[in-house]
Amino acid sequence: LNARIARFPKPYVALMEGIVMGGGVGVSAHASLRIVTERSRVAMPETGIGFVPDVGGTHLLAAAPGELGTHLALTGRSVGAADALLCGLADHYVPTRRLPELTEALAASATAHEVARTVRSFSEEPPAGELAAQRDWIDACYAADTVEEIVRRLQDSATPAAVDTAAELAARSPLALKVTLAAVRRAARLGSLEAVLDQEFRVSGRIREEPDFVEGVRARIIDKDGSPQWKPATLAEVDDSAVARFFAPLGPGEQELGLAPGAPAGGTA
């Protein structure tokens, strides 16, 4: 579905109003025209529940300027309109009060050119965001090759927001953090959305089998005690080989997603 949205030949206009997270990003941020409002909160918050960004989320975040996508992927933070535009998750800002008028005008637009022109005519400058002013410490800290080094740089930063972020990452699943960083880095090299979706299919299927996913859902969504007991409990306990196995081709009898050219088309690896 996410790949078909991205390649759909007709204009696909997404009104990213209110909370747009996880699967909501998948059905909107791959659209040809993506509109945010002052009420938009856009995020891929998976690391908070011991999971990893999917639905093409690592493809989108890998394409964000500098290390902004890495920052959002690891922390799972939500962003408003201006920051969604900055990160390439949206294209236009339209105030909520104008959405009914916009949808009516879109319904009367007969061609792709008219649709694009209609959206542009409603587009305005969004309220100021936060990330542009934080690029220096975000780019410097998240350029590191490992989660451990990212956390160390954040802790050693002279910027209070960076130190706070280090504490925020300490509450995330160590396994999810390491797999997510690898997924975003690999997505940048894979290039196409289809290849990234194939990768995410492998990773998400495997991480669902880990105890952190069940524990994260319990602590954040069901019991809401906010105290997940991650296994492994520390970054040091998650080695490179543990991370690499999430990206290996699926084994005999397991079906690959097979969207990328040359990939097994739903067959076995």
List keywords for this structure.
single chain; about 270 residues; two-stranded parallel sheet; about 50% helix
Write the layout of secondary structure elements.
Layout: H1 2-7, E1 13-16, E2 19-21, H2 23-26, E3 33-36, E4 41-43, H3 57-62, H4 68-75, H5 81-86, E5 92-93, H6 99-107, H7 112-122, H8 135-142, H9 147-156, H10 160-170, H11 174-190, H12 193-207, H13 211-222, H14 240-244
Please explain how this structure is put together.
With 269 residues, the chain is mainly alpha-helical. It has helices spanning 2-7, 23-26, 57-62, 68-75, 81-86, 99-107, 112-122, 135-142, 147-156, 160-170, 174-190, 193-207, 211-222, 240-244; strands at residues 13-16, 19-21, 33-36, 41-43, 92-93. The strands form two sheets. Strands 1-3-5 form a three-stranded parallel beta sheet. A two-stranded parallel sheet has the order 2-4. Helix 9 (147-156) runs antiparallel to helix 10 (160-170) and helix 11 (174-190) runs antiparallel to helix 12 (193-207). It starts with a helix and ends in a 25-residue tail after the last helix. 40% of the residues are buried. The model has no long low-confidence stretch (mean pLDDT 95).
